[in-house]
Design a protein that fits this description.
single chain, seven-stranded mixed beta sheet, 47% helix, alpha/beta, 255 residues, 2-enoyl-CoA Hydratase, Chain A, domain 1
């Protein structure tokens, strides 16, 4: 059993490395957390005993989004986030996620790094960027349509609406549903089912299925950052931040 000082805990069982985010209750991420997670995944990629990763999170939410903290929304900050995202998408071993509670914004982007998502009915998925007055990020304009189709992805990205676990499973955003009491056990069982197989064959199959994905995310995040850079300067962005923090619809004026 291993641990890091970054709020990421690792435990290994039957060739599966459970990687747990420990920033409860909501596991907000910043650039450093994502870089630490990418470092962790790369280290596990080099370990021949690890055949599958299981991403879990401690607390109420899987990941409720980005926490800029003292960092103002800026293209520089976004680039740091998305550089780490590209590293995460470059992981060679399969990843299963257990999604409880919120996977919002950057949290949804992180969930889509993984190959399979096991969600509780109480899970909530949203790309709420338009409610904040900015362009989607984390490569979601590529990964979400790739997963659930152009129309379903457009609906989520244009509205910023939240989707519960049952609806997520219906549209293919989640692969399996499990009650919260057995969520991690169910996700672990799937990870172990993958890990039972010939690891070189699994990684080769995964590499074929995900050919070009990391490169596509790199290209897409470059476009996303360009749009975010423009929108960070608008009145609508400032109003979106206020509106979301005050839990009300935004009073936007297209300025």
């Amino acid at each position: 059993m291993l641990g890091t000082d970054s709020g990421i805990h690792i435990a290994v069982e039957s060739h599966v490395a459970q990687v747990e985010l420990r920033h409860p209750p909501h596991n907000f991420v910043n650039a450093q957390v994502l870089e630490d997670l990418a470092d962790c995944f790369e280290r596990l990629d080099r370990d021949p005993e690890i055949r599958c990763l299981l991403l879990t999170a401690q607390g109420k939410s899987f990941c409720a989004g980005a926490n800029f903290g003292d960092e103002e929304g800026s293209a520089h900050t976004a680039r740091s986030y998305y550089a780490a995202a590209v590293r995460l998408f470059s992981t060679r071993k399969p990843i299963v996620a257990a999604i409880q509670g919120a996977a919002i914004g950057a949290g949804l982007g992180l969930a889509l790094v993984t190959d399979f998502r096991v969600a509780s009915p109480e899970a909530r998925f949203a790309a709420n960027f338009v409610k904040l007055g900015i362009h989607p990020g984390f490569g979601l304009t590529h990964t979400l349509p790739r997963l659930i189709g152009q129309q379903a992805a457009s609906l989520l990205l244009y509205t910023g609406r939240r989707v519960g676990g049952v609806e997520a499973a219906r549209i293919g955003l989640a692969d399996m549903l499990a009650d919260s009491e057995v969520l991690v056990d169910t996700a672990m069982a799937l990870a172990q089912e993958i890990a039972e197989n010939a690891p070189l064959a699994v990684m080769a199959t995964r590499a074929t299925l995900r050919t070009g994905l990391a490169d596509a995310v790199l290209a897409q995040t470059s476009l996303e950052v360009s749009e975010q850079e423009r929108l960070f300067l608008t009145e609508d962005y400032r109003e979106g931040l206020r509106a979301v923090s005050e839990r009300r619809p935004g009073n936007f004026n297209a300025r």
